[in-house]
Amino acid sequence: RQMEVFQDYWNQHRDLICLVAKIVLAAVFIALVIVACIIDLHRALGLLVFTLLAIFFYFWDRLVERYGSWMWEASSPIRCLLSRNWFWMRCVLYASLLVLTVLWLVLDTAKQGTRQIVSFFGLLLFVLLMLVFSKHPFHWSWQALISGTLLQFLIALLIFRTSSGASAVEWIAQKVEILFGFTDVGSKFIFGKKYIDHPFAFKVMPVLLFLSSIVSVLYYVGFMPWLICKIGYAMQIVMGTTSVESVVAAGTIFLGQTESLILVRPYISKLTLSEIHALITVGLAGISGTMFAAYIALGVKAEHVLTSTVMSAPASLAIAKTFWPETETSSVKDESGIKIPVDDNTNVFEAASRGATSAVGLVVTIVVNLMVFISLMTFLDSILSWFGSLFDCPQLSFALIFSYVFRPLAFMMGVSWEDSGLVAELIGTKTFLNELLAYQKMSKLIKLRKAGGPEYVDNVKQYISAHSEMIATYALCGFSNFASMGIAFGSMSNFAPDRQADIASCGFRALIAGSVSCFMTACIAGVLYVPEVHCAHFLSTHFNNSVVTNSSQLIHCCTQLYTSVTVNDPWNITISNGFSESSLRQCCLLTPAAQFNCSLI
């Protein structure tokens, strides 16, 4: 009898009880955050930032849900004013951006060097090629092209040229690497202590299973669909693309090309050719979260992969709408929001389990394909070597062919001419095989550079510079290869069998557009990236030159040198961080510092 009374009371007041429970839990959580900040603010800064963001978006969603229509109506006079003068405002905005970009580039080049000029002209070249070879010339979407490129610049500028942006990305990258490191515990338990003897199979691949499980849990709790919709809505407003295109572009930041298509599965059969081309392009230009883990496990810098993943989303839409502009009337243009399929898992544990098991097929596919591709490449290289030996050219191989065919592209992205041959080989490997094999080759180059061995052996370059590695990381970060093009065709054909011929007609152009999107991202990174300078080496090299010039870098390094000096007693000093006393003397002659008494040396 008491159970029935309790059941009736629960049914009548369920919503109120749940609301009170949520309020109590939220209050307890906020109290814990406050206590953590009081104990150590620096240590709890990440938790505080995420809490404030969650609170902001929660109240923003409630505000829009309740007053959104009223706010839209209230802003109608402003919208009408903007629409009447939008043409002239847009012309002034574009002209101002062009002038400011050129002016900034000239001033920044005078400070940083001329290499970034090559990357900038490479960016212009890729955009020009897309305009010239467009499917429908003079129907380009200038809004998508300019806003997409500008978004790339803003993201890169925030990360490469601001200390807060760089610190944020570095912090996220460190946390991601720590997260992936927990996979080693499971690998060690299953495969034993010697699992590291086979790193690719027993260290890299388990990371894919672990991350797939985490993504599935985030999808189940609703965070992943919410985040994708927010980013997609922002891209739709800024770039003028349809909601379907924007949601898929946002989805490729976190999901794979097939998973992101599932988000808009009911709409695929109604898309125009331009929209189909855009969906394939964004899938080929991006990567999945699971592959993100694999690249990092190979030794590629996490912050570069993370930045490239975010930058490629607007770039792919910009290039897709330029290379195949919209000439038809879209039937999904007026869709106010995409209804993302609901997760059918019953609890968190089922979501975690199904997420891990769903990635088993991906792991098997990667392992089998890599094994076959490497064997096949070795076999074909032996045939090419035999054929070349008939003409006294036994070194003929795919690597050699790639190094010549793609070398101009690598150079235009900002890679030095000496390194462009090796980077071109990586681009060819990525395009004709897959990006994971290309990253595996690049990881060997990274290890050779860090080992400090000879740069040339028998006039053959052994590794590339850190700057070239950075550009190559961005250029390779995408699924734009023939195998992935086939996967995209199969996935979309399965979702919309009646559009199979249309999907096939977009495939090759989408592959080119996806590749160019990655190259554009690499160009922008080349323009804005400032390589880390080791001041001890810089000062010793600079002062050994016959002509010593004053510069901002010299002042920065001398200041760093002064802070590394410890004065034990007068005329008895200790210099740390690899600096020399001769560099200290030269710095005192050129840029005497207030915080150090140069008369002590």
TrEMBL record:
Keywords: Cell membrane, Membrane, Transmembrane, Transmembrane helix. The keyword Transmembrane applies. InterPro entries: C_nuclsd_transpt, CNT_C_dom, CNT_N_dom, Gate_dom. The chain crosses the membrane at residues 20-39, 44-60, 86-105, 117-134, 140-160, 200-221, 233-255, 276-298, 359-380, 386-406, 471-490, 510-530. GO terms for molecular function: pyrimidine- and adenosine-specific:sodium symporter activity. Residues 201-298 form the Nucleoside transporter/FeoB GTPase Gate domain. Residues 121-193 form the Concentrative nucleoside transporter N-terminal domain. Residues 304-526 form the Concentrative nucleoside transporter C-terminal domain. One of its GO terms (cellular component) is plasma membrane. GO terms for biological process: purine nucleoside transmembrane transport; pyrimidine nucleoside transport. Pfam families: Gate (PF07670), Nucleos_tra2_C (PF07662), Nucleos_tra2_N (PF01773). This is Solute carrier family 28 member 3. It comes from Tetraodon nigroviridis (Spotted green pufferfish).
